[in-house]
Structures
1.
Amino acid sequence: MNEFQIFYAVWRCLRHTWYKYRRKVMRFWDRLKWCVIGGAGYALGRYLFQLVQTYTGG
């Protein structure tokens, strides 16, 4: 086996693994993305609420 054949065998194995687990990986990243967006929105809301309270004397 030369280098190209080894590379092609590894490539096929990686591609097969990717197709097998692609749905799970994509679902994980999608959930993680929305958790980060939700967390940032929550933090921004808390910050703005605290800012409003500070400047309105509440």
Note: Helices lie at 3-56.
2.
Amino acid sequence: MIRINLDVVMAQRKISLNKLSELVGVTPANLSILKNEKGKAVRFSTLDALCKALDCQPGDLMEYIDDEPNDKTDQSMEE
């Protein structure tokens, strides 16, 4: 799964949701959906605007978390 770290980056930059909304041109409601990991997708243009406004890289805003069990790990634990 992809974890969204927008809230962490916002806290580090000490920026409010409303201020970020103004800078990015996305409604506070839509940013809140993204921040709370309720969104299903993000446009590259939105990601670009977020990175510009927060002076960060896409990897600062998102990270991949493996939520699938690893077959090799499961098998070695059973032995």
Note: The longest helix spans residues 44-54.
